[in-house]
Design goal:
Blueprint: E1 6-8, E2 29-31, E3 52-54, E4 75-77, E5 98-100, E6 121-123, E7 144-145
Parallel strand pairs: 1-2, 2-3, 3-4, 4-5, 5-6, 6-7
Length: about 150
């Protein structure tokens, strides 16, 4: 069996010109860096094999609930957006090893973050956090916390 497909739109093509319907449903990696996205396209909810989602440096304000249903995700990079909160349903991403939400507008972290037991890197720097919940102490595999 060959490798599962990847899809990269890392060129200068902006999201308004990307036809998301052409993305293979077996895609495992998706790079949508610098695409002027205002939101995560709902069509990505069909990518159930996705392991790596890269959506940094856009204008995304919310991580939609359907992203938390992509339970094969291992890496979620959403730094440099204007995200204000981490969704409560993030606990479903039990395979997540890297969560990068740096340079956003997050002011508090949900306590369910403690359910992400596979997490070994968590980046929350350059947000508006006043405190970190003690549940982060449950992340026994965590090696990097920014």
């Amino acid at each position: 069996m060959g490798a599962l497909p990847t899809f990269s739109k890392s060129t200068n093509q902006k999201a308004s010109k990307i036809d998301f319907s052409i993305i293979n449903k077996d895609t495992t990696r998706l790079d949508l860096k610098n695409k002027n996205l205002d939101s995560v396209p709902t069509s990505l909810s069909q990518l159930t094999h996705l392991k790596w989602l890269n959506i940094p440096h856009n204008r995304i304000t919310v991580i939609p609930e359907f992203v938390c249903d992509l339970t094969n995700l291992v890496t979620l990079r959403a730094l440099g957006n204007t995200i204000k909160e981490i969704p409560q349903s993030i606990y479903k991403l039990t395979n997540l090893t890297l969560l990068d939400l740096g340079k956003n507008k997050i002011d508090k972290i949900t306590t369910v973050i403690g359910h992400l037991v596979q997490l070994n890197e968590l980046n929350l720097n350059w947000n508006e956090l006043e405190q970190v919940p003690q549940e982060i102490g449950k992340l026994s595999n965590l090696k990097v916390l920014n």
